[in-house]
Amino acid sequence: QVQLIESGGGLVQAGGSLRLSCAASGRTFTWSAMGWxxxxxxxxxECVAAILWSGSRTFYADSVKGRxxxxxxxxxxxxxxxxxxxxxxxxxxxxxxAGLGNARQAQPGTSxxxxxxxxxxxxxxxxx
Length: 128
Known about the structure:
By secondary structure, this protein is an all-beta fold. The chain is built from no helices and eleven strands.
């Protein structure tokens, strides 16, 4: 059974930092793009960061560029999202996602439909 389990969310003051982790199990994701999405109440789920299977290509939403960093450890089947300089508008449920696996993929996907596996989400709340 494939599982993606997020951790590291919580309550933090504006300007603070959090590090989200996503541990994958049930299959290897070595060849899969991985992404972090977020969804705030009343809003659509959006991709904030994504990383290719090799780590050679990354994507960041404009709203988080320069503040968030995505990384992965294929040996541990884990992907991370380091979030610095958090703002109240970063408040949302954050979800980890994994693709099916494609070693030829040139860029990590940024849309919900490009990911086959999803975690349950972890809540991030940034107070002003």
